[in-house]
Amino acid sequence: MSARDVSHSPVLTAIRQKFGSAVVEMHAFRGDETVVILPTKLHELMRFLRDDPRMQFNFLMDITAVDWPERHPRFDVVYHLYSLKYNRRLRVKTRVDDGDTVDSVTDLWRGANWLEREVYDMFGIRFRHHPDLRRILMYDEFEGHPLRKDYPLRQEQPRVPYRIAPRDPWRDPDIWNR
Amino acid sequence: MARSRYLEQMTRERDDVIVWEEDGKTHLFLNMGPSHPAMHGIIKIILELDGEYVVDADIEIGYLHRAFEKTCEYKTWNQVIPYTDRLNYVSPLINNVAYVMTVEKLLGIEVPRRAQYIRVLMSEISRLTDHLTCIGAALMELGAMTAFLYMIKAREWLWELIEMVCGARLTTSYTRVGGLKADLPDGFAPACRERLRGVRQVLKEIHGMITGNRIFLDRMRDVGVIDADTAISYGFTGPCLRACGVPFDLRKDQPYLVYDELDFDVPIGEVGDNLDRYLVRMEEMEQSIRIIAQCLERIPEEEPVVMAQEFRAWELDDIGRTGRLSFDPDRVRVRLANTLEGAEAMHWDHINVPDRTVVLPPREETYTTIESLMNHFKLIMNGHGIRPPAGEVYHAEEGANGELGFYIVSTGEDHPYRIRVRGPCFALTSGLVEMIRGHTVADIVPIFGSINMIGGELER
Asked: To the nearest whole percent, how much of chain A has pLDDT over 70?
């Protein structure tokens, strides 16, 4: 059973039947069932996954993104779902370019509010119809989106300028304050 | 949104305390936190108050953001482990285990059974320390200082136990990809049993002192109620979800390690108020003690690797000084503490996978044989290291506060391309507004205490 062979999975088969050409890719690497969907169909798929009696993915566990700077649709937006009834997990991914928007799923799961804010904060991906899209971990004055691969690891943006202790020529050797 | 209105008013009136009239009621904005004596954790709650009642609130987080995910992209697979200690810093071993299990899923390896038992054992000890901290701190904020001291005393015993094994109380870094840093030390099982007896006694005292207490019940019962559907919609997991009556526990539902062989119950609440969350946590501690007791009984004993004469280190020293060698020196096995450097080889294969592309050779072999030295070089030096296949995995474990998940993307290099942590606190804190709405300011303190927000995990 290879990772590309997904015919054994009832969830992936049902998604392929319903969404057909909107499904970009499917795989089950290490048993993690994954479906990649076009961003235009994302919200419809998520509603189907939550409400369909065969699916019932009632938990939205996580939303995150992965940055691939060289690839054409630059970002993967990754959703992790869990179904309490069937005890099953599913990963949904969609690919968007810098500046594109993704449909928000805050109307389906309330927990999506903060998760989408974090993705916006860290990657700069905007979510359409999000009630309150603003930074969550970084402060409002912060420039750039830190988890993008082109954001340098060591770049400081102090909110308050660093205080430099006044120099005491009797106690501090010159080397400390140079 | 409370916050935008707050900012708007603040810029207009240039004052921190803002009062205005709306619908015949007087509204007041109040900042609770980020540094407030009743907030254990740096978090700011902007409250919109009508008298003493919370009309709306907005929660601001991010004061403890340390760029965990960004930093990990620049570290090798094993270098990430110390950073995971700092996620949930009251139960660091669960983070260690969850992270290495995710990498092992990516590699497709399974650790030996002894290592699996030790991982379960240490995870449950950590769950105890986490729940003790949570309940102790929450009770202290309600004025029960004695209960806090009792519980911190019990936590101290458990941390001493962890110190015996890992050498550190909080910054454990105990697991490695493919196994563990070291085996359990000699005399661990009796020490563990003795301390668990003490913890159980403390729990009994807390039940006697607190659980039936009228003041306590008045503060906890029907306060901070959240129903199961709302909780699921917010992504609640762990004790806070189980308090709503949903028996969702990854240790039962998607068993990892050896949890499917152990016998334990999943306690659930009825209403989803503060009291249920407290009772669920108290009962979970009992269950954790049960799990630890079973682990201590069932843990596979290691077989001696080398059949040889065994000496204590000081005996060998004496023999060496007097020059009376009545044995073949090549067949001598020196008995040192298991966690001591240089005494690893005889324990190594019981707690690590035999795959030498993942696990370092034991230290004495690195220092004495060229093959192991090369192996060590290939795993440690820059640009070499462990190389999992390219791909992406998500693995979740039952952390002390709920589902702790790691999502790892690998491109087949010696460092992760992306690590994402799904901390349980994030969902819990986003649902906090729902729980405090309509209650008084004084009720925020026990509600906030009962969700057990841990800043390190919330803001990473």
From this structure: 88
Determine the structural domain holding residue A153 and report its residue range. 10-177
CB atoms closer than 10 angstroms to residue B299: 19
Judged by a CB distance cut-off of 8 A, whether residue A110 touches chain B is yes
Quick check: is A135 in a domain? yes
* Distance (Å) from the alpha carbon of B431 to chain A's nearest alpha carbon: 8
Q: Which fold has domain B69-300+388-422?
A: Cytochrome-c3 Hydrogenase; chain B (1.10.645)
Q: For residue range B417-453, list pLDDT tens digits in order.
A: 999 999 899 999 998 988 988 889 888 888 988 888 8
For residue B178, give the nearest of B77, B109, B120, B121 by alpha carbon. Answer: B109
Q: Is A59 on the interface with B (CB under 8 A)?
A: yes
CA atoms of A95 and A72, how far apart (whole Å):
9
In the DSSP assignment, the letter for residue B407 is: E
Tell whether the model's pLDDT for residue A23 goes beyond 50.
yes
The CATH number that applies at residue A53 is: 3.30.460.80
Residue A170's pLDDT is 64
Residue position matching structure tokens 């009992």: B286
Query: B417, A66: Cβ pair inside 8 Å?
Result: yes
Give the domain ranges of chain B. Answer: 2-60, 69-300+388-422
Q: Establish whether this prediction's ipTM goes over 0.90.
A: no
The 10s digit of each residue's pLDDT in B137-194 is: 989 888 888 999 999 999 999 999 998 888 888 888 889 888 888 888 878 888 899 9
Is B311's pLDDT higher than 80? no
Distance from CA of A110 to the nearest CA of B (A): 5
Can you give the pTM of this predicted structure?
0.86
pLDDT at A175 over 60: no
pLDDT value for B367: 77
Query: Which candidate from A61, A113, A137 shows the least CB-CB separation from B430?
Result: A113
Tokens 């905007």 found at: A126
Is residue A2 in a domain? Answer: no
Half-sphere exposure of residue B295: CA atoms within 13 angstroms, side-chain side: 30
Nearest residue, CB atoms, A30 vs list B108, B234, B417:
B108
Contact A89 B409 (CB under 8 A): no
Phi, psi of B54 (to 5 degrees): -85, 120
- Tell which of B392, B415, B432 to mutate to test the A interface (max A CBs under 10 Å): B392
